[in-house]
## 1
Amino acid sequence: MHEKCPNCNLRYEKQPGNFYGAMYVSYAISTGIFLVTAFILYHFFNDPSLEVYLITILVVALVLFPINFRFSRILFLYIIWKSN
């Protein structure tokens, strides 16, 4: 993120609860990723062993972490902005 606005030179500051709110949104997105991955494994790969579940979910979560990190912050800011 930019430290200052490129147009008006306003310094961006975070709200006190910004990180906590984005963290809860990230938890919700991660839970959705876990559930969708487990559903796909169960229904399309004939219910594999527990190790396959754990490894697959871990790999998918790690691959999607950068997207989840950015998207959760954006989504939380959008939620806060619409509520004001």
## 2
Amino acid sequence: MSRIKKGDEVIVLTGRDKGKRGVVARRVDKNHVVVEGVNRAKKHVKPNPMKGQQGGIVDKDMPIHISNIALFNSQTQKADKVLFKALEGGRKVRAFKSNGEMIDA
């Protein structure tokens, strides 16, 4: 079970986008995720009339390492660490470390 999943709201801890918040769009590999609106780069795109694609300069979200982001706790309005709790049925769930609130119920 991973600490950060697709659809989680995260906050950037380091880098040029420090302090920005966004939602995890997808997981690239074990250590990298793409966050919407964070770590944007300009990409030059050629037009492709077969696909109906226009050419020009496009903003693209690039992957960011998971060590540079943390889950955003909406109750405390701060970044928070994640811990795992075992329920009575043997199922593991993620929870915030500061207040113990379960993330995925």
## 3
Amino acid sequence: MAVIELMAEEIVKTPLTSQDKPDVLRELVQILMDAGRIDNFDSVLSAVQEREDQMSTGLEGGIAVPHAKSASVDSLKMAIGIAPAGIDFNALDGNPTKLFFLLVAPPDKAGPHVQALAEIAKLAQSKAFCRALINAENAAEVVELMRGD
């Protein structure tokens, strides 16, 4: 399943209201909950936090891809959060993170999860594209950019 197939305004939030890493994780999981994509907030948040405790998913260039496996989902779920001012997310390069892509997949389905991570990594290589996402006025604009409309 391509990331583009998961895109919808209700899974995008810009700007995030969080100021720190734990709050970002909660806010991203809440986006999925509010969009009706998950039923068990605590289970999904716990899985995401456990994965993050192993090693930060804050990459370079202002991007983080928090992700986890959870039996609480039956298919790949994604939420996107944008923090134009940046949030300290323990990124590899030490810089603030502005783009957050949360991925949650069922434990028995690695394929879509890995494919989505690869697609996000590819998107992240375009600094101009990332700037456009960060500067998007609203969720609709983010969806439009991600779909290439």
